[in-house]
């Protein structure tokens, strides 16, 4: 067997593997013998089929299978041993001729996409911004209020104020202000006057009480929106387009959403029984959660800036464009050519970042273990619960959700990549010179605009 490797450019190569019959014949014979032990052909007992018949019936198929196995072993073995920095998998060359497995010599030609060579290593001379997000009292007030809103409840009240929901009887009025004979009426009509498009109509509700009969104009309130009127009055949109009348509205119920009180029941709901006992302890816990959240955001931004810094330092790279596009086509057989052209540039940019991360991981010596990936999944699970105001979830529940995430291949791959980046972000802070800055959350978010 002979393997020849020849670079056709700085980022592409051609590999030719020549195989003689002697290279694979013994493997073919052994496989045929194994087949023979189990083969059950008409007229023969198992294991008694003549070898000549076995070769006639299965020889070509077995030869093809064994050649492909040997080819894969030798091809990838060579690439590993020679430490070929390859992108994707080898591609069958367009020079490749149909293979005649009965020939004495078999030749296989592959195109190899090579990674561009560059140096992404960092030192203490490299200066990267690192942002710490300031936590203000105003921010804590907003977080506490959001938690109270999330865990509040609806209650019946006597007098309407902004944000309240009303329920009552609607009746269309004639020009004299009397209930119109044969006019539109709607029982249990529910409204949120705060969302009227006409402020004057909304103001008519200020201070009204349960069992009050008031007059307003739905068409004016919704600025003639047939969709809104149709929903409110229970009529078709075509009918709603002609509704311009005033309506009487007898208010039977006023419902208000009341934020949760700052009491022990509320604290226990958020953090578990007895974990928080007063408002100051609540604010301390909320501040700690924000610090953890913002620490993650700061780490993300730090690695974002590392990437931008290195991409600028490295500059424009040469890529084996045609080979990479062929790989994209092979990996996305259900996509058309337009898909490849539209997504190629973005894919190459992500590939560059992947290669940068590999160098940085090698420089810092980080390794990703299964437990690291699980911890990333648990962090993501906690963040998802936190979005719904659910803190203090027992670790066994968090772990179960995280393990379920890891069972899904795409999610698992994403979590591995996130784990690499998380560990890189930590390791690189001890390598580069940090340009430390304290910043508001609003200004921090502006850093990502147009990026």
Give the key terms.
15 helices, 49% helix, four-stranded antiparallel sheet, 451 residues, elongated, Alpha-Beta Plaits, Chitinase A, domain 3, Trigger factor, domain 2, alpha+beta, 3 domains
Describe this entry's structure for a reader.
The protein has helices at 21-38, 51-81, 137-150, 199-203, 218-221, 226-233, 237-240, 264-271, 279-314, 321-331, 337-364, 370-387, 395-406, 409-428, 441-446, and strands at residues 2-9, 12-20, 86-92, 105-114, 127-133, 153-156, 165-172, 185-191, 213-216, 247-258, 433-439. By secondary structure, the protein is α+β, with helices and mostly antiparallel strands. It folds into 3 domains: 2-114, 2-Layer Sandwich (Alpha-Beta Plaits); 127-144 and 266-446, Orthogonal Bundle (Trigger factor, domain 2), CATH 1.10.3120; 153-258, Chitinase A, domain 3 (Roll). The strands form 3 sheets. Strands 6, 7, 8, 9 and 10 form a 5-stranded antiparallel beta sheet that branches. It has a 4-stranded antiparallel beta sheet with strand order 1-2-4-3. Strand 1 (2-9) and strand 2 (12-20) form a beta hairpin. Helix 1 packs across helix 2, helix 3 crosses helix 9 and helix 12 packs across helix 14. The model has no long low-confidence stretch (mean pLDDT 91).
